[in-house]
Design goal:
single chain
Length: 215
């Protein structure tokens, strides 16, 4: 191959190696972003849990903002990253850090009446995220009701049935008593899911790339 004077000499092997190495920084950036988002939402869950809970008369399970954080993680991050954020939060709590309601921590919480709600959280975040991903292609005007519907479905199918079952078992309630007691949390969950969908809609409006990455 002839060489034109004044032009830099570039071998064929050096040009061939550029495409092979170029995508690597992008892959690392994507993984780093995912890790940062998962860690951020796990921390958000901890904040939601340790805020002063509202005690319910006659029940050992207080009202907290945990379900708001769980639903928001699923709606914004999608099924995989949302459930990972919740699992990270639970792992930190079970390890002994006081990140559960009332500043509690450790595996001892699995023996409490609220254990079912905690165990249902990662599954609920996954389902909410899965449904939200399916609704990601709807028109912007319909995004808010779609996200709210995703959060409510996950709450009604997973959080409430599992939470009520374990609560009734731990407190020695009959099925009717447990369902009646669990129903006291439903109005609050509706409000928290409305807020989670509202925040998720605002986040997607401000960061449309995040909406695409959640699919």
């Amino acid at each position: 191959m002839s060489h034109i004077p004044g032009e830099p000499l570039v071998s064929a092997s050096s040009t061939d190696s550029v495409p092979a190495t170029a995508p690597l920084p992008l892959a690392r950036t994507s993984a780093a972003t995912d890790i940062a988002l998962v860690a951020t939402f796990a921390a958000l869950l901890a904040v939601c849990a340790i805020l002063p809970p509202i005690a319910v008369a006659g029940l050992a399970v207080p009202i907290t903002l945990q379900t708001f954080g769980v639903m928001l993680a699923g709606l914004v991050l999608g099924s995989r990253r949302g459930s990972l954020a919740v699992l990270l939060y639970l792992s930190v709590g079970f390890a002994g850090l006081p990140v559960f309601a009332g500043g509690s921590g450790g595996v001892g919480v699995l023996g409490t009446a609220s254990a079912g709600y905690l165990l249902a959280f990662p599954f609920a975040a996954f389902l909410a995220g899965f449904l939200a991903q399916r609704a990601a292609s709807v028109r912007p005007a319909l995004r808010y009701p779609a996200l709210f519907g995703s959060a409510m479905t996950a709450s009604l199918l997973l959080i409430h049935p599992i939470g009520i079952t374990v609560m009734g078992w731990r407190l020695g309630m009959s099925a009717t008593e447990a369902i009646a007691a669990g129903a006291t949390f439903l109005p609050g969950d509706v409000i928290k899911n409305l807020l989670a969908a509202l925040v998720a809609t605002a986040v997607f409006r401000a960061f449309p790339d995040l909406l695409r990455r959640s699919r």
